[in-house]
Design brief:
313 residues; alpha+beta; five-stranded antiparallel sheet; three-stranded antiparallel sheet; globular; transferase
């Protein structure tokens, strides 16, 4: 059994769905790793998960079988008497902290590069019948070389075809697809694509496109920009549990009034993801064939926002 003795904690890197993440260094290899610590004493001893939260079990079981350049690598799992440690490859910071730390707009080629990598990662996940269900800037990790990786699989799950009934209480609200907000329990990989569209908007305007403070406020913020959906633009929307015929009727507005696009290709790409009807929304595999992404190349981000976590913990 591996122990923590071979790691030196260097500092706190952040917090995940269910635990603190530390930056650490492997004494043998000298390489940096991220240690996600999960306390076990919060869970009853007679629980069927034996004190390990279901989110941790889910993340471990999913990540153990995944190998992709755009998905965080789970390198090891270690136990102590009251804690569980997940050992991940280390990346410098998450996309949210990167956006908050840069004064200038993101370069359009960096956005394009990030989106291609994320679409490749999502296509890989969806091909393996895995929904991430929590795509947001805080769960996307970036490094100085221009790589971006999908992390935090605590809310992920495998899906089947035809789709089963799942809880709609997933995805951080600002990035939650309209079918989830309207109570659909039958959904598939389109929920991740909608979230990616919201992330793209945030890369362009440095803030959330739909920053709702409640579910109904979230719904209305989407409607005010994209228009109130009807049966013509989204067949079956009126049958969703949370849909109300009394919803205010907003007309779609021009996305350029809300997002500063670099060019028409960029705008069209976002529109492919922010589509109401999940059956019309492009899949990650389809998005990879769009000319906008075919031009993508690895682009190095501005180095200044990358902090060096060097203090001894």
């Amino acid at each position: 059994m591996n122990t923590l003795d071979k790691f030196i904690k260097l500092g706190t890197a952040g917090e995940g769905t269910y635990g603190i993440v530390y930056k650490a260094k492997n004494k043998v290899t000298g390489k940096s790793v991220a240690l996600k610590r999960i306390k076990l004493e919060k869970f009853s001893k007679d629980d069927q998960t034996e004190g390990v939260p279901s989110t941790a079990i889910r993340e471990i079981s999913i990540l153990k079988g995944l190998r992709h350049s755009a998905i965080i690598e789970l390198q090891d799992v270690m136990y102590t008497s009251d804690k569980l440690y997940l050992v991940f490859e280390y990346l410098d910071l998450d996309l949210k902290r990167y956006l908050d730390g840069t004064m200038k707009p993101m370069h359009k080629e960096l956005i394009r590069s990030y989106l291609k990598q994320l679409c490749e990662g999502l296509a890989y996940l969806h091909t393996h019948r895995i929904l991430h269900r929590d795509i947001k800037p805080q769960n996307l990790l970036v490094d100085k070389e221009g790589h971006i990786k999908i992390a935090d699989f605590g809310l992920s799950r495998c899906f089947s075809v035809p789709t089963k009934s799942y809880t709609h209480e997933v995805v951080t609200m600002w990035y939650r697809a309209p079918e989830l907000l309207l109570g659909s329990k039958l959904y598939t990989n389109g929920v991740d694509i909608w979230s990616l569209g919201c992330v793209m908007a945030e890369m362009l305007i440095k803030r959330a496109l739909f920053p709702g403070d409640s579910e109904i406020d979230q719904i209305f913020k989407i409607f005010k920009i994209l228009g109130t959906p009807n049966e013509e633009m989204w067949p079956g929307v009126a049958t969703l549990p949370q849909y109300e015929v009394s919803f205010p009727q907003w007309k779609p507005s021009d996305l350029k009034l809300h997002v500063s696009f670099n060019d028409a290709e960029e705008e069209e790409f976002m529109k492919m993801m922010l589509v109401y009807d999940p059956f019309v929304r492009k899949s990650a595999k389809q998005l990879l064939t769009v000319p906008y992404l075919r031009k993508a190349k690895l682009t190095t981000p501005n180095m200044r926002p990358f902090p060096d976590v060097s203090e001894e913990y």
